[in-house]
Amino acid sequence: MTAQFTFSVDAADGPARRGVISTSKGDIATPAFMPVGTAGTVKAMLPEHVRATGADIVLGNTYHLMLRPGAERVAALGGLHRFMNWPHPILTDSGGFQVMSLSKLRKLTEDGVSFQSHIDGSRHMLTPERSIEIQCLLGADIQMQLDECPAIPIAEDDARESMLLSVRWAERSKRAFEEKSAPGQALFGIVQGANYETLRRESLDRLMEIGFPGYSIGGLAVGEGRGEMFRVLEFTCPHMPADRPRYLMGVGKPADIVGAVARGVDMFDCVAPTRSGRHGQAWTKSGPVNIKNAKYADDPEPLDPASPCPASRDYSKAYLHHLFRAGEYLGPMLLTWHNLQYYQDLMEGLRAAIAAGRLGEHIAAFKAATGETLV
What we know:
By secondary structure, the chain is of the alpha/beta class. It has helices spanning 47-52, 62-67, 71-76, 80-83, 96-102, 128-138, 156-180, 197-210, 226-236, 254-262, 272-278, 310-313, 317-326, 330-356, 359-370; strands spanning 6-13, 16-23, 26-30, 32-37, 58-60, 90-92, 104-108, 113-116, 123-126, 142-144, 186-191, 214-217, 246-248, 267-270, 281-284, 287-290.
């Protein structure tokens, strides 16, 4: 870690940790949830409203930004922080997952992956070096190595071949980062290996030999189920460096986050709060609410009368129901705002419980209120 990028743990309760990641753009309280700003915006939200929910950091997407408006253009306009009016920390993914899942006619080689844009059909090549170059042009404070993210289930031999490719790409990513990065920026390695314990251990050991200031856990939240995800975390997290942040990529729903924090994870991102908000689902202390349901048409109560968020506190469920039924843009905007506040409140509650040594009680109360089963 550099002088401008540090991580410290100030409290623990079992495997769960509370800490702070310090960057040149500000501190990030952990466990942290990062709202997803795929194309340089958290959908349906003003940056100042995202910040007001308690978010310390947002995520930008390398694949989408390289295609539109282009990394070189963003750099010429002052970098992603200035471009999207977010002066706080930004994490970017490598683009690899989107290449694998969204693009057409992709071809994977040792060098990288060639693919066809889902926007206009143009051809592109994404290598570890180009991924890092894009992330540096964007000016991301925390960057990800390029990796391959295979689906689960996958045969063990195929998973090992994929994992070793990701390790080789990690080495190339680090060399490129050392050449192109600015002071204070950090590059995370990504642990792969599907749901095989030996492969996860081998991936982690090889990445630790290369050396990174943080480690991500990739290849989960791809349909394997919550129980299997937790199982992988249980045999992976205990071997991860205690003095480095642990980032579970693409997770998740509230119960996923609560269970992963209890197993030692520090950082999360997911489109769930924003995507759910756009489609009429509100996350609440008593579980999810589908605001489109007819039973809310005459409900005068807000989603959370005690919330500091205007969207949660100042609008009735009946009004929100009306907005969605009428197809008004304000409906998705308000529900997204509410959901992001809920997620940040969830993280603050977890941090407080860890600091007080009461995480077990906190999780029991969460399960009782939401009806979730955390295996």
